[in-house]
Amino acid sequence: MRKLITLSMFFIACSLFAQEEETKPSFTVSGSIDAYYRANFTAPNDENAIAPGSSFANLPGFALGMANVVLGYEGEKVGFVADLVFGPRGADAVFNSPQADPFYASSNIVNQLYAYWNVSESVTLTMGNFNTFLGYEVISPTANFNYSTSYLFSYGPFSHTGLKADIALSDDFSLMLAVMNDTDFTEFNSTGDYAFGAQLGYSGQFLNFLLDPSFTEIDFTGGFDLSDDFFLGINAAYLDIEDAGSFAGVALYPQLSTSDSFTIGLRGEYFTETEFGAGAIGGYDADGDGSVFALTLTGSLAIDNLTIKPEIRLDSASEEAFIDNDLAGTKSLGSFVLAAIYSF
Q: What number is the average pLDDT over the span 79-96?
């Protein structure tokens, strides 16, 4: 009997210790680095080199992306994320930050910096600077399938600073509500105006709204597993600029896994602007209207924590938005990118 009691107390102690281990706060360090090579097929690759009018992966020859270090602390109720980026991609991502100004630039750039409170099992409050909730693509190349980015991502918001509430309405439905500074003004409010955001989610499909003092955007982001090996992502958005033009677009992301280490995917995007829109395309008719159709074929080879991504991209515009090898205006541009991304 004494042995039985002793054994029982041992199991109870182990159980209590395990519970303590499960609820113990944790500190994490993660991140990535990326570099790439870029060359045009149909345009110069010297001082006259050009690139599609979308963000990132636009520099000629061998070029740097960014080093990304994410510090996180997760407690039972509260936590924080400090997401730091170093390099050209990071600087481009915070273009409205004073740190992006050459007179104030530093080697440390804050991509995200926020604290959160799990008020209950279904409600989380977050305050600080966080990447946008709109769109299919994100700033970090580790979370995107294609290395170059879409027009929809490049001319939608990158980041917000404010207060948001994430609410789990049920197992399938979610709701996010936010009040924020002007879009992409991430360090402080320099205008005195505020933006309002909302997101309604259902089983991995999201309908997003952003009411900014200077524009209004509605966005749908989602995707479907059509089989164990085939996934189809979808992004569609419309943005109307106050007292100016607008842009709209749709992008499809079919991706096929051919093995545990290799996936091939295609991004097909149609993007159009009116009254010069956001200036994304660069070629317009007399009324300031223009459109572009872009196809991006990407392979993704995973070797442990390293991912190699060869990519061919073809952009075809309605007007002469690009130049050819003779420096004459042309409606199309063909380019190649080879990227290396290491995540930890």
A: 90
Helix (H) or strand (E) holding 21: helix 2-23
70-99 per-residue burial string, b: 16 or more CB within 10 A, e: under 16: beeeeeeeebebbbbbbbbbbbbbbebbeb
Neighbours of 254 (CB within 10 A): 14
CA 156, CA 135: separation in Å to the nearest integer? Answer: 8
Using the predicted structure, report yes or no on whether residue 81 has a pLDDT greater than 80: yes
Classify the phi-psi angles of 141: left when phi > 0, otherwise alpha if psi is within -120 to 50, otherwise beta.
Answer: alpha
* String of DSSP letters for 29-52: EEEEEEEEEEEESSS--STT----
Contact by Cβ (8 Å): 50, 43: yes
The four Cα atoms 157, 163, 166, 169 give a dihedral, to 10 degrees, of -110
Q: Which has the closest alpha carbon to 200: 177, 171, 179? A: 177
User: Alpha-carbon Rg of the chain, whole angstroms?
Assistant: 23
Find out whether 274 and 245 touch, Cβ atoms under 8 Å. Answer: yes
Question: Does the 26-343 domain belong in CATH 2.40.160.10?
Answer: yes
With beta carbons less than 8 A apart as the criterion, state whether 298 and 309 touch: yes
**Kind and range of the H or E run holding 108:** none
Q: Is 141 helix (H, G, I), strand (E, B) or coil?
A: helix
User: Is residue 237 classed as helix, strand or coil in its secondary structure?
Assistant: strand
Q: Output the CA–CA distances (angstroms, integers) from residue 217 to 191, 195, 209, 213, in the order listed.
A: 20, 11, 6, 11
The Cα 110–Cα 90 span in angstroms is 8
Residue-wise pLDDT tens digits, 26-52: 999 999 999 999 999 999 999 999 999
152 contacts 235 by C-beta, under 8 angstroms: yes
